[in-house]
């Protein structure tokens, strides 16, 4: 059996920290996704909601 660490990247929590300087315009949402993509280790599966 292999032990694996799990990390939950919650969008609300990221908005208060990693992406707190961004708004909700098109360019800011694109930058938000870019930052989230690099926030997790390799193998991370981000669950994103889109309007």
Any overview of this molecule?
The protein is mostly helical and 51 residues long. The chain has a domain of 31 residues. 39% of the residues lie in helices and 0% in strands. It has two helices and no strands. The longest helix is centred in the middle third of the chain and has 14 residues.
In short:
The chain is mostly helical and 51 residues long. The protein is built from two helices and no strands.
Layout of SSEs?
Layout: H1 11-16, H2 26-39
pLDDT < 50 runs, ≥5 residues = none
CA radius of gyration is: 12 Å
Distance linking N and C termini? 39 Å
User: What would the average pLDDT be, to the nearest integer?
Assistant: 79
- Tell me about the largest β-sheet: none
Specify the overall morphology. Answer: elongated
Share of helix among residues? 25-40%
SS-based class: mainly alpha
Strand content: under 5%
Number of helices: 2
In N-to-C order, the SSE pattern is HH
Q: How many E-type strands?
A: 0
Keywords:
2 helices; 51 residues; mainly alpha; P-loop_NTPase; 0% strand
């Amino acid at each position: 059996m292999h032990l694996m660490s799990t990390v939950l990247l919650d969008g609300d929590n990221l908005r208060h920290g990693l992406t707190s300087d961004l708004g909700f315009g098109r360019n800011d949402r694109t930058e938000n996704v870019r930052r989230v993509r690099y926030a997790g280790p390799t193998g991370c599966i981000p669950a994103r909601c889109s309007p």
